Amino acid sequence: MKKILGASLVNCVHVAGIYRFLSLAEQYGYQSHFLGPAIPVEKLIEAIKEENPDRVIVGYRLSEEAAQNIFQELKEALQKNQLLGKFVLILSCTPALETIAQKTGIFDYIFTGKERFEDIVESITGKRGGSPEEKYPSTLPERIKAKSPFPLLRHHFGLPSLSETIEGVAQISEARVIDVISLGPDQNAQEFFFQPHLMNEEKKGAGGVPLRHPEDLKKIYQASRRGNFPLLRCYSGTNNLVEWAHLLKETINIAWGAVPLMWYSKLDGRSQRSLPVAIQENQEAMRAYTSLGVPLEVNESHQWSLRDAPDSVAAATFYLAAYNAKKVGARYYIAQYMLNTPPGISPQADLAKMLAKSDLIKELEGEDFTIFTQTRGGLAHFSVDLNIAKGQLGASTFLGLFLKPQIIHVVGFCEADHLARPEEVIESAQVVEGVIKDALFGLPKVENDPVIIENKERIKREAKLVLEAIKRIGEKEEDPWASPQVLAQAVEEGILDAPHLLGNPHASGKVKTRVIDGFLRTVNERGEVIKEEERLNSILQRLRLESL
Asked: Which of 41, 163, 185, 505 is deepest in the core (most CB within 10 A)?
């Protein structure tokens, strides 16, 4: 087994960074030996001789004058004992000591707290240099593997100006903080890219970048070929989703496709597609991405939670999304967990719901269907006060880490107020990096919380009742969970329902929910909690179907 040795030098007692680094190295298969604080140079040399380590990390975070003498003493001791070049030597210090340390020429890596994840991993793995293709893989599974145990960071970006978007993508790429840039086209492009004559150019740039030609996407992609060569992805569009899939594969080598199951339809008004047509076309888009070898995300569940749907509906649609992805043959699936949605639920309730979702889709996972976990904060949760929003971003990130994500969708701290500019994308990523680095020490086992366990199991049970109710109304269909007609009927009859759909001619909108003790619960007209069986059975009885 590879060995790594760590210590703080001479009179320095700061060991947190050293200890954290050793803990991370253990995840990469190293046996760590921590000497402790304030270790004299001669004692360090003795330990190196005895242990014969592959890597040594030392720390010094005191005065510049003392550092100069101590670094020189260390250099002379290594030379005297013929140890220079026998192992990788890493220094953890303050920014003020970096130049002094560089002048000695003995350190392979100098960390001051400003380094990127990839620099830290590189110092442990030894995988240095190489072509961009080797260092920054161009496919999602390979990129996740290369950066593990750190999650990939993803951020939306798209400004009302194409030229500013291109420049911004270049700036973000050079900063090496974002692994996946998600392009946000304006609504004109999302709906009418393939029918430009239908666009309303008075709304140009509304909601994102005004993409009008395939060359626009190619220019953005070329701008990203620098820095850490981030992966690119893009909204799926709200019309012509199959055409969008092929376009995005050809122009930006899309990292993964994100398609709704029921939305971007008359249900939310983002297109004029009827619900059965939208479901069928969305399924066709899923097949298109799968046929192109592109991983798939079906961003369905959070759309329901954004409209205050019961947790049972959120969890059931989470399962339906993954189920439909697997059915069309997706090899890699990205399960997105949107936290803080709706606003007002407690972190305890949030984790219970998310762990319930995770448990439900585990049964779908196998050799031919790999699930990657992606977490994000809920946009409606963020304050328009940017300082408060930064705190919320940090808190949301920390909560999501309990789900052990491979991808973190960074919601810019400014997005409740305005579209994120490049510098705000970078700053948001840095906030998230800080949270992740702190979490490397280890997280408590909150999943053992009895309240979380009890409610997780309740939500799972209720979600399965929703899924069973859908089967009941689609009993004549071979696969009701993938039938556009059955799923549309489930929405129309209220099996899948949300309070915000009240008055929507394409949905029921009769369900009522309320946050009670931090949990979003289904309630009756008097505000009293009602069981999901009661809600669903009333619908089935009205349809003259057998009760659950």
From this structure: 185
Contact 418, 160 (CB under 8 A): no
DSSP one-letter code for 487 = H
Confidence at 129, pLDDT banded by 50, 70, 90: low
Give the tokens for residue 391.
């705190």
**Is the bond into 185 cis (omega within 30 degrees of 0)?**
no
Query: Quick one: which H or E segment has residue 10?
Result: none
Per-residue three-class SS string for 198-213: HCCHHHCCCCCECCCC
Q: What is the pLDDT of residues 235-280, one digit of tens each?
A: 888 889 999 999 999 999 999 999 999 998 999 988 889 999 999 9
Nearest to 393 by CA among 403, 401, 381, 402: 381
All domains in the chain, ordered by first residue: 2-125 (3.40.50.280), 132-258+382-442 (3.20.20.240), 459-542 (no CATH)
Q: How far apart are the first and last CA of the chain?
A: 56
- Which tokens sit at 149? 């145990």
pTM: 0.89
Residue 247 neighbours by CB under 8 Å, 6+ apart: 193, 214, 217
- Phi and psi at residue 215, to the nearest 5°: -60, -30
370 φ, ψ (degrees, to nearest 5): -95, 130
Alpha helix segments (H runs only) across 253-310: 275-291, 301-305
User: Of 91, 21, 32, whose CA–CA distance to 60 is shortest?
Assistant: 91
- Asked if residue 405 has a cis previous peptide bond (ω within 30° of 0), the answer is no
Tell me 179's DSSP state. Answer: S
Q: Are 459 and 352 in contact (CB under 8 A)?
A: yes
Read off the amino acid at residue 119: D
Confirm if 276 and 283 have CB atoms less than 8 A apart: no
Q: 160-170 pLDDT, tens per residue?
A: 999 999 999 99
Beta strand pairing status for 513-516 and 407-410?
Answer: unpaired
In this structure, what DSSP letter does residue 499 have? G
Angle (CA) 85 22 128, round 5°: 45
H/E stretch holding 41 reads: helix 41-51
The answer to whether 35 touches 6, Cβ cutoff 8 Å, is yes
